[in-house]
Amino acid sequence: MSAFYHFHWSRKEHADCLVLVTTLAEFEQQDLIDIVDQDILSGNPYPEALIIIAPADAAPGRCHVVGNLTGGG
């Protein structure tokens, strides 16, 4: 079983979101890049928003990973 599950979530009044759910306490920047690349290759456009659902103990580290990817540090 994969440690990651992702899907697109969109509603008329909201943006198209890429939702990533993981049970891992840690994952690397490359894991996130691979998931976004898979999503693009499957024919989905770049999402307008990214939602990551992860264990509470992983939240600070995931914010750092996403911040580095988006230039937010």
Account of the 3D structure:
Keywords: Plasmid. The chain is an alpha+beta fold. It has one domain. About 35% of the residues lie in helices and about 25% in strands. It is built from 2 helices and 3 strands. A 3-stranded mixed β-sheet has the order 1-2-3, with no helix packed on it. The longest helix has 13 residues, at about 30-40. The radius of gyration is 12 Å and the shape is globular. The protein starts with a strand and ends with a helix.
Key terms:
73 residues, alpha+beta, 3-stranded mixed sheet, plasmid
- Helix-and-strand structural type: alpha+beta
Mean pLDDT: 75
The proportion of strand residues reads 15-25%
**Which geometry do the CA atoms define?**
globular
Biggest sheet statistics: 3 strands, mixed
Q: What is the spatial order of strands in the main beta sheet?
A: 1-2-3
Give the end-to-end Cα distance, rounded to a whole number of Å.
32 Å
Q: Structurally, how many domains make up the residues?
A: 1
| Helix/strand order, N-terminal first | EEHEH
Helix content: 25-40%
* Quaternary structure annotation: single chain
* Number of helices, counting only DSSP H or I runs of 4 residues or more: 2
Low-confidence stretches: none
Give me the count of strands.
3
Radius of gyration: 12 Å
